Amino acid sequence: MAEFMSLRDAVAHCIGDGDRVAMEGFTHLIPHAAGHEVIRQQRKHLTLVRMTPDIIYDQLIGMGCADKLVFSWGGNPGVGSLHRFRDAIENKWPQPLDIEEHSHAAMANAYEAGAANLPFAMMRGYLGADLSLVNPNIRSVTCPFTGEVLAAMPAIRPDVAVIHALRADREGNVLLEGITGVQKEAVLASKRAIVTVEEVVDTFGPTNRNAVILPSWTITAVCVVPGGAHPSYAQGYYSRDNSFYIAWDAISRDRDSFLAWMTRHVLEQGPEAFAVHARPAKASKLS
Amino acid sequence: MAEFMSLRDAVAHCIGDGDRVAMEGFTHLIPHAAGHEVIRQQRKHLTLVRMTPDIIYDQLIGMGCADKLVFSWGGNPGVGSLHRFRDAIENKWPQPLDIEEHSHAAMANAYEAGAANLPFAMMRGYLGADLSLVNPNIRSVTCPFTGEVLAAMPAIRPDVAVIHALRADREGNVLLEGITGVQKEAVLASKRAIVTVEEVVDTFGPTNRNAVILPSWTITAVCVVPGGAHPSYAQGYYSRDNSFYIAWDAISRDRDSFLAWMTRHVLEQGPEAFAVHARPAKASKLS
Amino acid sequence: MSAATANHTPTEMMTIAAARALRNEDVCFVGIGAPSAACNLARLTHAPNITLIYESGTIATRPTVLPLSIGDGELCDTALTTVSVPEMFRYWLQGGRISVGFLGGAQIDRFANLNTTVVGAYDAPKVRLPGGGGAPEIASNCQEIFIIMAQSKRAFVDRLDFITSMGHGRTGVERRAMGIKTKGPTRLITDMAIYAPDPETCEMSVVSIHPGISRSQIEDSLGWPVRYAAEVVETPSPTHDELEVLRDMQARTRQAHQQS
Amino acid sequence: MSAATANHTPTEMMTIAAARALRNEDVCFVGIGAPSAACNLARLTHAPNITLIYESGTIATRPTVLPLSIGDGELCDTALTTVSVPEMFRYWLQGGRISVGFLGGAQIDRFANLNTTVVGAYDAPKVRLPGGGGAPEIASNCQEIFIIMAQSKRAFVDRLDFITSMGHGRTGVERRAMGIKTKGPTRLITDMAIYAPDPETCEMSVVSIHPGISRSQIEDSLGWPVRYAAEVVETPSPTHDELEVLRDMQARTRQAHQQS
After folding, report:
1. Which of A45, B215, C237, D14 is exposed most, by the fewest CB atoms within 10 A?
2. pTM, full prediction
3. CA–CA min distance B138, chain A (Å)
4. D69: closest CA among D80, D48, D54, D91?
5. Looking at the complex, does the CB of residue C174 fall below 8 Å from at least one CB of chain B?
């Protein structure tokens, strides 16, 4: 059963140095507050897994938390490069960063295989793509009926999944809605799971019978962190802060300005700093 | 894009003799009206695919529509045997019935693989089970990373899927809710799809953002057949007619009483006979 | 708990003994019929927070009446949420998230292998049974398996014509030999006794005898020479509470299933 | 359609030419940026029923403003429904249900192979680009591929350091040789011209030149000797309608993205 705890306790309890950690959220519901807490607690030697290592992983990488990155698209969505990610790969700053690179389809399938407790995933993919030449974790499997050769990759089985969700009920069941990405799979594929939520409610009320709900017993810790996805968004709560994504380009381009920003906005803050972003969105219907 | 048409036209247009047909619906939303129309149009030599060939397939088999059955559990749920299914296998009446038998997990995975356009599905399954000794379509595949051996089965790719859904909008998009079984996978795995619905609405109204909706362009024909799932049920419309399932045991036990029932209730009727069942359910919330 | 009573049927004793084996923290994959009655009785008595999952996709369901089918609307209406059947078998069952799988069967052998497929030859069956459904993978993917079946010589047979779902294997060693990490059948609850696997041989051995049942009654309704564990106790009689909750549930159920 | 106009930028011409290539009945897998602009312009002009799918899971979405990211809330709010990312890649893309995949890239070669991974060696890159994302499987699983990219010698190169997603293959024959049944890149739309694969060699060849662009301009912004199709036409100028709808959409978008 999930325990309600502070984000500080959840990170202290669930994430250790050297862990394989998947912070997921596909554009929507990215667990920024949790990422900041990991930085504040100075976790080291992490293997970070994420389809789209955008700002949240740029920050973790730039602060030296990661030894390795498993990913499929590393950019600032709609804006351009991730400068800390590039600086780590191109210049080994602040430390070298190993990478294991896949395609989106491969990562999505590998999470799915992890949730399904399979050792590997398969797909019709990587045809004519050079990534299979540089990643030894891209192999093949042959259909025992047709002889067709398919691409294969190991299932993703992280030590810890970290996601942000809309709300929890008092039992610690968690509701997601909207763009749910690979979060459900990431939680089910992981040994432990931290879920930050916008709020706790007595009941989810009348939901669709097929609502995306993670039962309490699939989760280790639930932490109430309103606004905790900012500058990502929480559908029905607040919109994506596209202007921050644009601003991040300048903040992160330079090592000093990056460190200054991180000191002021992360190291000297706590999870409660996110609450200011938790206002209802103008452009988004409440669900 | 889906075309709205009568059930008679849809069956005439989509299902031919010898086709591989999957009528799906896991307890909920079983397309009984469509099954009856196939019987009335006297389709022959069908390969019928269905996880749980309950009453609907008992009727098709007893009326001689099927040469082969692909299935994983053939019983009258909660009641007992399917007498027409047993009579066909044990006594070849009214004609011999080939079977290809799987487990539920295998069938579910094989539909999933069909929807995903994979040639086969794999699972951790059939361990120590004799079914793998008698079904040549149960094979194995070896994980290229761990060496683990997994069970493999061919993807299910029917010629036609037939399902019942709650409602369609004017564009022919179709909404399911509740126990959705393998219906979405069956439609996406098939070359053609017939969907019968309780009603057509102008819009689905405020739905969950992750509602189970099949877009119009995945469907061949949409047919409005209120009550068309009876004695199965349509969540929010009418309840499962458990007393009919219990009554079917006596009706179907004897060949003559079966044929008499089929003549009176199927051959001499049309899809509109189902409308009487389409009253709102007492026990079920409207969605 | 109220006082014990002797005024109960063997089937009631079986259901109640099965219910008692379940724990409040279990996540249980529930078969229809006797398993469903036992699981819901547990939920309505000592295990209010038990999580019940039916293969139709309903997760954490709390039915008021017992479902006739594995997918009655009642299961969906009272569930936390409902997922697709492929997801159920992939993420939840194969995913290793189920602590107890609760099975019944047409036939069983001493190593708790089950047959629900055919009596006679597969290609020319004397009796064609419904088939495996979810059982083959429930048997291997749940952390442990409870089996509930009324005893009879027809059902408890020396040798199965067909193993639909493996218990401990044809000779009791196969399951271990295959390296399967889940425990397999740890409890067989009948209308006469409770069995558990012998630690050495994995043969299902009597560990508890229901009140009023003799050893010879047990032995006469089995197709093999029954073994007893070193220590055999008497199953506590049903309590008033247990019986009352069970009978209420079944009365509600009968009434509901007569409505069309 | 209103009268044509010469008062437009090369980027506007590119977007409009790309939009025109889309049909009302297409199911389109949309990349962010220029592809998204072209697809939504098509939807707001001649193809009102086109189905737009973004890899974030949004199916049949109708955004009022262009998304900055592949998963802005606007896409979800205006979608028919939204599915998980694994489902998107398994059932919808790999499922073969997409008629047109719309890609951009950092670099392209004459056979429409794309590089969005690295400039330089993979292990010691001069420039580390974002990587493939959905592109490798979009390239092989969609029935055909449209590519939209502004021409420059840096982007249109003689030889790619890395093939992120295959067009027609390193020498134009690999795709066919592998027996891939989808068509691959059938159109490359730039700010200067429209290219289509040569029926024999699969080399992308100019089939239409945008108004006001000369052959030498095209040739000066490419890293290979450009080929022309047997018949080369002039791209019709943007109409007033097309330009107005495009500019309105981009003004709305700019305004929306400045809000936090």
Report:
1. A45
2. 0.96
3. 10
4. D54
5. yes
